[in-house]
Amino acid sequence: QVQLVESGGGLVQPGGSLRLSCAASGRIFSINVMGWYRQHPGKQRELVARITTSGSTNYADSVKGRFTISRDNAKNTVYLQMNSLKPEDTAVYYCNAYILLGTPGDYWGQGTQVTVSS
C-alpha cells in the first residue's frame, strides 16, 4: 500500500503565501503523476495542479501565475507553493498520487485545510 501525508495548511491573510508538502511512503517504484486537488464546502473536488515524473505540469486557470507545483522524485514528495492567496482559495487541499507500476492505484492524502481570511 501507499500512504500520503500532507502538511503545511493553515490560516493566512489575503495576499499571503503558504507551502504545502506531501510525502508518499510504502512500496513505490515511481509515482507517475502527483497532484493537488481541493474541495470547497458543498462542491466537488477539483484539480489545482499536477506534475509528471519528467516535470510536466498543468494548472487550473484559477491558480495560474500564483501557484507552483514541484516534486522531489528521490523523496517521493510533491510541493505546492501558493502565493497571492485569495479568500476563494479557502478549501481542503488533497494530495494525489497516480501509480502504474509496483503498487498501482490512485492514492489520496487525508487533506489539509487552507483558510484565507483577514
Q: What percent of residues adopt helix (DSSP H or I)?
A: under 10%
Roughly how many Å is the radius of gyration?
A: 14 Å
Distance N to C terminus: 40 Å
Overall mean confidence score, pLDDT: 95
With helices defined by DSSP (H or I, 4 residues minimum), what is the helix count?
A: 0
Oligomer: single chain
Shape: globular
How would a crystallographer describe the biggest sheet? Answer: 7 strands, mixed
The helix-and-strand class reads mainly beta
Number of strands: 11
Secondary-structure element order, as H and E?
EEEEEEEEEEE
Poorly predicted runs of 5 or more residues: none
> What share of residues are in beta strands?
over 45%
What does this structure look like?
0% of the residues lie in helices and 55% in strands. The chain is an all-beta fold. The strands form two sheets. Strands 2, 4, 5, 6, 9, 10 and 11 form a seven-stranded mixed β-sheet that branches. Strands 1-3-8-7 form a four-stranded antiparallel β-sheet, with no helix packed on it. The chain starts with a strand and ends with a strand.
